[in-house]
Write a structure and sequence with these properties.
- The protein is an alpha+beta fold.
- The strands form two sheets. A three-stranded antiparallel β-sheet has the order 4-3-5. A two-stranded antiparallel sheet has the order 1-2.
- The protein has two domains: about 70 residues, Orthogonal Bundle (Arc Repressor Mutant, subunit A), CATH 1.10.10.10; about 55 residues, no CATH class.
- The protein has six helices and five strands.
């Protein structure tokens, strides 16, 4: 599970929402990284969020403007593994259960494989790439 999904579920469970300092303390992050994660949660369509702006007054009497994030709904990520097949000019075939596995074990670049799959690029690493169907995976 990604840190974004974990933080979103944690904030969703809290009735009073969270500020970046609370997220940082709970997940051992810096406050700036927690703020970035909260911004990503707020921008992603799979989370229904709202933000309240308020001013915190410190011991010195000076105010600091901040925002509290509330996550009203959390949906699971929409990504899934895409099995791929690469075929080179000698008709040699390589099969991988996912694009990430092709990168990790095969030494290919996942962005380039994705470009081949959506026809933005013809080949990568000497292979033409296609999505593997169930019959081809056998």
């Amino acid at each position: 599970m990604s840190i974004i999904q974990e933080v979103a579920e944690w904030v969703h469970a809290r009735t009073d929402g969270a500020i970046s300092a609370e997220v940082a303390a709970a997940f051992s992050l810096t406050v700036s990284k927690a703020s970035i994660v909260m911004g990503q949660i707020h921008r992603e369509a799979r989370f229904t969020t709202r933000v309240e702006h308020f001013c915190m007054v410190g011991e010195n009497g000076r105010g600091r403007h901040t925002r509290r994030l509330f996550v009203d709904q959390v949906r699971d990520p929409q990504w899934h593994k895409t099995p791929v097949i690469g075929i080179n000019e000698e008709q040699q075939i390589v099969r991988f259960d996912s694009i990430v596995e092709a990168e990790r074990t095969g030494g290919f670049v996942r962005v380039s494989i994705t470009r081949c799959l959506n026809n933005s690029q013809a080949t990568h690493g000497g292979y033409r790439w296609t999505v593997a169907t169930n019959e081809q995976n056998g």
